[in-house]
């Protein structure tokens, strides 16, 4: 299997990439980390391993970040003598295309394309070798396992071992014969074996179906023999049930007539009993009416006596209630007088409180006025003050700079001392200067001329550094003066004093505002306080004018004591008034109760008298309409009629008991008759159908078909067993040959180890040798004559052995091999060994397709000949200049 070109789009960070694989040369793909090198290898793996519509995590992870696009992979490759173009777009619906050219051209799409690609891979590619020769990032230290199961590698080693051609030919013929009946890898049955078994199974099914039909006819004949006596019994039972149904119907009709007679007798009894009840009730009503009249006469006499006694008690209660009501009215007047006086005293207390509040508000108002004056003065100063903390800081910094510059200037200034007799004089810059005490000091801040007696003159100039400092001092003094003018101060000390005054003024404003806020309390401003004071003064003046004729309290304590005295008097008179009112109401309540009792008794007297008169009138009316003698005769006649009706009803019910209830039995017989008729119809229909089927099959063709099918089954069974015996013999022969072949292949390890040693001596030296384990993986290596276990080697040495081992496997199976990929391997190798391995890979590429991916440009420069593809932007170039191609456009 060889790759020719791969195109990857919208895959992780790759927007569009294409890599062409050279023929017979090593391909080195260079690029920085995250440039998309490993993604190209991963894209080829996903192309074969997953369907285009797969929702697997590995497929979801390769979707591009920040773009709504579907990953696309296209690979052109050769496999088994055919060239293929395989393309997939991974999304929910999925796009899969496979074009195969060669001896037979074909185009596939969808799931069929995926399955066909998998079949091509399974048929032509050794999976163990394919996985072992694909080294991804992080896998370089892992030696491949399972190579002992690689059939292509073992076949190559077998050929290298020089096995007997005749034996190999026998093995191939056995393998070919085995392939007639089973697939090579999964040992599934082939079409020939399946066809033989299918023919036998179809013959078995036909024999079974025809046999079932024959057995069904035999069962129908047997069923006809069973149904004939059953139908006769059913017909006889139906006739018996029909006779019983008629007899039960006659009994049911007789019972209905008896039930009707019972209904008439019952109604006659009910009418007689109703007449008896009506006459009896009238007799009872007359007796009860007489007893009620006697009770009412006794009750009326008792009520009239009680009414006379209660009326005497009522007169006494009326006098008592009148006297208590007059006492309650007098107590209420005393309470009203005390309440009026208490209200006046409460008004006096309110007047005294407002006097106190007015005085307090006057003091608060005065404090607010004074605080506002202080605030206005402080705000006026703040408005005119130009000093700020920032400006003061700049002034002080400028002052410090001036002072530092002056100190520096004093350190470098030139001072000339002229000594001479006391009283002598010299001329300095044209001005005569005396030598006081015989000494004159002249500071040189600029060019100075000193004329001495005798015509001598001295010219002194300041140094250059002094001139610079003087200029700097002038600038800094000017800056200080500018800042002081901005602050409105003569000097820095005055500016600091202004800042202190500014801070004090701000505190004064804040203190005044707190005073104003505290004195205003719940009022928003001074005007509201003044208004409240004015209203309070107005109420005080109005109260004085209203009560001008009496002495008002001078203090609030006096007003409070007077109010407490008035309140006590009010409570005392209230209690007396409430007690008198309760006594009056109790007396009036007793009077109303007595009056109500008298009225109730009077009503009862009138009601009893009316009832008694009505009862007497009703008794007289009933006697006139229906005399008692006639009522007694009607009662005796009603009793006789009821007894006669009772005897008649008992006779009819005895007749009903004699007849009984044939209804349930009739229903049972009717149900059984219906069931019998239904079963009879079903049995007759089943018997007719069975007889018809027997008449239709009476010509014997079905049995002939069964005999013919049995003959075909015997032939098909014999052929299937013969094919199965051949298949089993082919399996046994192949497994036996494989067993002996595996024994011969135990010598493959030394052959592969020798091939690996040939490659490794170019890297490790002529002393290099290696020993492989049963799985054909490196077990030990020789270093300076000493054998060392692979696990005891350094990381770099193990990594180099792993690469050389894969290279040896690829070289051994070069004819039927697969591409050899190395992704960022040999990271722990020194430069010398890396160059030697690069040369080994370049030489191997003439036999095997080798692809190396690295993040370090020039790392495999020693590999010659080789083609280098650099992934660094929009274009790439090959080292030999043979071709150029587009490369990944990265996000």
Automatic annotation (TrEMBL):
Extract the GO molecular function terms from the UniProt entry: ATP hydrolysis activity; exonuclease activity
**Any one Gene Ontology biological process term?**
double-strand break repair
The protein's UniProt keywords, in alphabetical order, are: Coiled coil, Exonuclease, Hydrolase, Nuclease
Question: Matching InterPro entries, A to Z?
Answer: AAA_GajA/Old/RecF-like (IPR041685), P-loop_NTPase (IPR027417)
Q: Which sequence ranges form a coiled-coil region, renumbered to this chain? A: 183-348, 388-415, 470-747
Q: Which Pfam families match?
A: AAA_15 (PF13175)
Ion transport listed as a keyword: no
Q: Ranges for the Endonuclease GajA/Old nuclease/RecF-like AAA domain?
A: 1-49
PANTHER family, per the entry: DOUBLE-STRAND BREAK REPAIR RAD50 ATPASE, PUTATIVE-RELATED (PTHR41259:SF1)
Q: Write down what this protein is called.
A: DNA repair exonuclease SbcCD ATPase subunit
